Amino acid sequence: MPKTNQLYLLEQLNNLETAKKENRQRVANIVLAQSFLLEELVTITFWIDEKVSIKASWVLEWICTHHNLEYILPYLDEFTSKISALKFDSAIRPCAKICEHLATAYYAKTPNRTKEKLTKQHIDAIVETGFDWLITPQKIAVRAYTMNTLYLFGLEKDWVHPELKHLIETKIIHESKGTKARGKHVINLIEKHLKSH
Predict the structure, then answer these.
(1) How far apart are CA 130 and CA 146, in angstroms?
(2) Is the pTM of this model over 0.90?
(3) Helices (H), 16-156
(4) Nearest CA among 177, 85, 172, 98 for reference residue 137
């Protein structure tokens, strides 16, 4: 990968002042128009000690949410093996949202490429990181996305729902109104799923 591509992308990210929609869309358009920049975007997202990683993760999540989740699929090995190392709250939130998108696509009724590309190793890494995010201090949005992600992956992994339910009841439900409501919702889903089996 030529260094100039990375420098060009860094310049675009550094010029992205706030997380406003139009700012994220502008940089997303640049990346999508030159698809070789996507690999750089994923790389910079995991420069975990650099503030620019936050902006990279905003743009990556924007692309996955508003354009197509399939853009992340070639980079699942890197994404899932490195998310546990993220440090900045503002980088964890968009990555937690991407994890939720992956889980949602994986369990969608319609066929899609995520089902083909997301491996057991990828899922295990997301689940493990998700539990780490739930037991460490995180923002409400991270908790909300992660509870949903773990609920979905728990549909196949028997041990996930009991652990998730226990965490919600003993910890998350006592944290804030927002997490309490989402936590109760997830517990209801788990109980409904248990009854149906």
Answers:
(1) 6
(2) yes
(3) 21-33, 36-45, 52-66, 76-82, 89-106, 113-117, 120-135, 140-153
(4) 172
Backbone angles phi, psi at 48, to 5 degrees: -65, -15
Q: Which residue has the tokens 């997490």?
A: 179
Please answer whether residues 55 and 16 qualify as being in contact, where contact means their C-beta atoms are separated by less than 8 angstroms. Answer: yes
Output the tens digit of pLDDT for each of the chain's 197 residues. Answer: 456 888 989 999 988 877 788 888 999 999 999 988 999 999 999 999 999 999 999 999 999 999 999 999 999 999 999 999 999 999 999 999 999 999 999 999 999 999 999 999 999 999 999 999 999 989 889 999 999 999 999 999 999 999 999 999 998 888 888 888 899 999 999 999 988 87
Which own/partner pairs from 129-134 qualify as long-range (CB within 8 Å, at least 24 positions apart)?
129/80, 129/83, 129/84, 129/99, 130/96, 130/99, 131/163, 131/167, 132/84, 133/92, 133/96, 134/164, 134/167, 134/171, 134/172
Task: Provide CB contacts within 8 A for 196, sequence distance 6+.
Answer: none
